[in-house]
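Example 3.2
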Amino acid sequence: MSELLDNIKDVEKNIDSSVNKSNRNREDVTLIAVSKTKPTEMIQKLYDAGYRDFGENYVQELSEKMNSLPDDIRWHMIGHLQTNKIKYIIDKVYMIHSVDSIHLAQAIGKEARKRNMTAKILLEVNVAEEDTKFGFTSENLEENFRQIKDIEGIEVLGLMTSAPYVENAEENRQYFVKLRSLMVDLKDKGLYNKNRFFLSMGMTCDYTVAIEEGADFVRVGTAIFGARKYV
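Structure, written as tokens:
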């Protein structure tokens, strides 16, 4: 457990360095500790150290952890979400980062209206055009955004992307630059006029570069919790 706290301190130092390098404010960058496959004891340890934002990829695992951890944790759904699983988490998560289709957005809106609430979502963009990843393309984002932004029951707060796994973070800078440019384009066309438009981008291998390019949320797992063991 002491290693866990050492790890997150190192991540914090790297975030501070990237923030300073890009003349940003530290409070504008939210570190999401990606806790998938990790035990609740580790999450509780970080909670006790002051952390509140945690990310999960799977609805069942997220639901189980919610039941045994403090209520004021801000849970972020960052994995692919199936429409039949929405009802289990919609009123429990702080934000859904991985909305990758109009159909999913409509289903979230429908479920949110049933509960008289508004769900915070981000639209996932497959900027790198990887066959194994979900998301809108850079080319069709605008037309989909135009349809999704007015769905009742949801609030589109920004964009999300998962860049390829790389050894050299610089290789992914191009994708973060592209996501930011897509955001700017949507705002310039008057499609988004709220104060903040959030970018969720950057993971263990590249979060420092993502911050330099404007990431508001970075999703860091391995650098904090260590390598995952899959059965």
